[in-house]
Write a structure and sequence with these properties.
Blueprint (H helix, E strand, L loop, with lengths): L2 H11 L4 E8 L10 E6 L2 H12 L3 E5 L17 E12 L5 E16 L8 E6 L11 H18 L5 H5 L3 H11 L4 H9 L3 H15 L13
Parallel strand pairs: 1-3
Antiparallel strand pairs: 1-6, 2-5, 3-4, 4-5, 5-6
Helix pairs in contact: 3-7, 5-7
Length: 224
């Protein structure tokens, strides 16, 4: 899905700024508008959620739980800001599991969690009315982001197709880095909540400078 496709879908839903959203709380998983997130759905409650979404509007919301724990209880507190996504490609398996590609549309702020009878959680949320796709970085901001990204990738030992990176527009570059960079959940949440492309790009540069090291314990740069 291109940025134009996402913008069209956002245009269709922007008139309803407050809406009910079925949510998928997943630590460390961030979705940005215009980006895609592959998901393997195996838990029964989230298989229910995908089935319900496919029968309705194909929309679900990605939001992080507070605290990085693998076993999420039904009452685990949530961060207030998440991102609404549309289920694009979907593979339904014979055993009830799904492989889906979620296409990021628009960020939202949770107003309240709803009392529901479904196995999955639902919230009432306010969609952010924004259009960052038209924003552009200054020449200096773009250069700083690319230079620091190269340094960070070298330190982390990542192989990157820099020619392809150079062809990305500012919007796609900033949000792609913010979504896939191996920062911990708190840093990724801060990136999601940053308003404005320039502010998010500046935050990415600062995070890469500060956390551009590997402590050898795992594959994620941490705040500790």
């Amino acid at each position: 899905m291109g940025v134009g496709d996402a913008a069209q879908i956002v245009g269709d839903i922007v008139r309803m700024t407050v809406r009910r959203i079925s949510i998928f709380p997943l630590p460390g998983a961030i979705l940005f508008p215009g980006m895609q997130l592959p998901l393997h759905i195996f838990e029964p409650r989230y298989r229910d959620m995908i089935g319900d979404s496919l029968a309705r509007d194909r929309m679900i919301g990605m939001v992080q739980p507070k605290g990085q724990t693998g076993n999420q209880r039904s009452n685990t507190p949530l961060f207030e800001v998440g991102c609404l996504g549309r289920i694009g490609d979907v593979e339904a398996m014979e055993d009830g599991r799904y492989n889906v590609i979620l296409e990021g549309l628009q960020r939202f702020t949770i107003l309240r969690e709803l009392d529901v009878t479904t196995s999955f959680r639902q919230v009432e949320a306010e969609l952010w009315e924004e259009d960052e796709a038209a924003d552009a970085l200054s020449i200096a901001e773009r250069a700083s982001l690319e230079i620091e990204s190269r340094r960070f990738a070298d330190v982390q030992g990542y192989a990157v197709d820099w020619a392809a990176v150079g062809q990305l527009d500012d919007y796609s570059l900033v949000n792609a880095i913010a979504q896939i960079a191996p920062f911990d959940y708190a840093a990724k949440q801060a990136l999601l909540e940053a308003r404005g492309l320039s502010d998010r790009a500046d935050m990415i540069v600062q995070l890469m400078q500060f956390f551009g090291r590997h402590d050898g314990s795992d594959d994620r740069v941490t705040l500790q």
